[in-house]
Design a protein that fits this description.
Elements (H helix, E strand, L loop, with lengths): L4 E7 L6 H15 L5 E9 L4 E7 L2 H8 L2 H10 L8 E4 L1
Antiparallel strand pairs: 1-3, 1-4, 2-3
Length: about 90
């Protein structure tokens, strides 16, 4: 049996872009929670300085499919001009 994969993604919005970043994440969350293998996909911290998304996936295969999926592509496109730095993704 494989163990679940836990991730944390940190988003640093440009000055004044917090609400647009949060909206883009909220839209993505609505889509991603229905993806196969998604156990958890939620904002766990949201301040003007950063937003933290906590993820849990049932398998490496599910995470890989998610990473290549349309929801992530749409999110990356939406955030392309809104972030002060690249998204930081950490395995927990």
């Amino acid at each position: 049996m494989t163990s679940a994969i836990d991730l944390q993604a940190t988003f640093i919005p440009n000055d004044g872009e917090f609400f647009r970043v949060k909206l883009a994440l909220d839209i993505a969350i609505e889509e991603v929670v229905n993806e196969p293998g998604c156990i958890r996909y939620e904002l766990t911290e949201a301040t003007e300085e950063k937003l933290v998304l906590t993820e849990q996936w049932a398998s490496e295969e599910d995470l890989d499919k998610h990473s290549k999926g349309i929801a992530v592509q749409d999110l990356n496109e939406s955030l392309s001009a809104l972030l002060a730095e690249p998204v930081k993704i950490e395995r927990l």
